[in-house]
Amino acid sequence: MEDQDHVTLIKVSTNASQYFVDSYYAALNGRRNTIASFYMPPAAMPGGNLPSISFNGTQIPTAAAMQTMFEQQIPQPRYEVQCYDCHVVNPNYISEGTQARPAKTGKNMTILVAVSGYVKYGNPKEAQPRAFSESFLLVPNPAAAAGQQRMKDVKEWLIQTQTFRIVV
Description:
alpha+beta
């Protein structure tokens, strides 16, 4: 039984990470008005002090502030993910105010996603590619855990913690 649970965790975390990386960087590249929807709402966390977002050494106070920064301050980016990896951090995470999903679903976990690649800001023909490294801690979306996943825009996993850094 334990081996099957381990296999389920690997499958779910891998699929969740792939979907997250594909959709998050597509949003950064073109649908910047949706960026805030990728983050855990502060009201869903004890104390309301999350998500924790660090962008190149600057603490961003909210998901809305992150979206505003991308919409108003950062020239149009073009992210190219070179690789990513994921690891289950906590296989028994339950969001505040929700009930655990059945263990066989593998959706009661937190997932660490490490991403690296290149980004260009501004005109992609003129901008120099810069290497980046980014880490995310993804948690189950309380709305999805509460059975609202049939709603069109409810994401299964949300960002609780994020650290972005330009490498060179």
